[in-house]
Amino acid sequence: MKKRKIMTSMLGLAIALGGLLPIAATAQHAPQLAKLKPADFPTQPIEYVVVYPAGGGLDLTARLLGKYVEKVSGDKVLVNNRTGGAGMVGHTYLATQAKPDGYTVGVLVNLVWGDAMLRSQGRWAYTDLEPVAYINSDPLTWVASTEGPYKGMSAKQIIQVAKDKPGTVRIATVPGSMWEYLIEQVEASTGAKFLRVPFQAGGPGVVALLGGSVDVAQGFYGEFRGYVDAGKIVPIALASNERTTFLKNTPTFNEIYNSTEYVWNIIRFAVVPKGTPPDRKAYIAATMQAALKDPELLAEYQKLGVYFDPALSKSTQVGADLNALAMKERDFYVKTGRLK
Asked: How many whole angstroms separate alpha carbon 180 and alpha carbon 183?
């Protein structure tokens, strides 16, 4: 009877402390998190805002990150897709409406810089969002269908068709972004002319390619890998300095045209609204850094075909380094006449 009472008391204590068990486990797994954790935060789920539709590369990135942040911290993470305006709706929300209390975190890509400089009309700046963690990178890739009129054609051959028959090759694009800028570069250097079909993000464009609504789509490996494995589409060119580990047989635009100018990479990172309390900001950053050291998460990301920029991965001042890259992008806009 005494033994049963002791067991019952221990069970009651375990139930009473149930909400604390994840934190205790975290303290053993990542003791630095316990030291940084504010006394009053978090007391509710943390929202990861993704500005593009579910199923795309950024959405997959955020959901995986949230899963492993929960694992290392014991905190609850919810992913919310605030879409519209090719990312502008979500970016504007984060910069102007989201409360700077630590409960809203943006999982973004560097397209936010273009929105801030070219489309925000001065209502907000990219500096209204403070980077807390670099996640990973991914080169923009052109893909074509394994069926239809361009079956078996290389990127160079399809571009030649777009030159010989202007406006007949339909290509998916995301207006006001690197998707559009890459098309412009190709057209300017080759004389080709594509019929641009706008989408909110790369993923929907890839789906449109499968349905025959476009002839060429642009996206990232995680968005089209399954369709490549199924033999439905084929990658035809990378906008990067070199071929990637996962697409060793796919040439770069720079290879095709003996150039160095075709480099368009997505940089994925996390931000909080400007004014977020420093202790909460530091804790959010630490949970992400701990998650990003988990071999299981790194393996999950590698399955998506991403790569990790060594300079940003090892950066001790990720905010400053990302803002420096934003300034380089600004130089491109000035050079091409988009920004004065």
From this structure: 5
Alpha-carbon 33 to chain mean position: 25
How many Å is the Cα radius of gyration of the chain? 23
Asked whether the beta carbons of 214 and 172 are under 8 A apart, the reply is yes
Tokens of 188: 């300017």
Per the CB < 8 A criterion, the answer to whether 292 and 300 are in contact is no
Question: pLDDT digits over 66-123, tens only?
Answer: 999 999 999 999 999 999 988 999 999 999 999 999 999 999 999 899 999 999 999 9
2 is a domain residue: no
CA gap 68, 136 in Å, rounded: 15
Token pair of 315 as six digits:
């950066």
Is residue 32 in some structural domain? no
For residue 208, the enclosing domain spans 141-257
User: How do beta strands 46-50 and 77-81 pair?
Assistant: parallel
Say if 280 falls within a structural domain. yes
Residues 105 and 86 in one domain: yes
Q: Cα-flanking dihedrals φ and ψ of residue 130, to 5°?
A: -100, 115
Is the Cβ–Cβ distance between 322 and 68 less than 8 Å? no
* Cβ(219)–Cβ(205) below 8 Å: yes
CB 318 within 8 A of CB 326: no
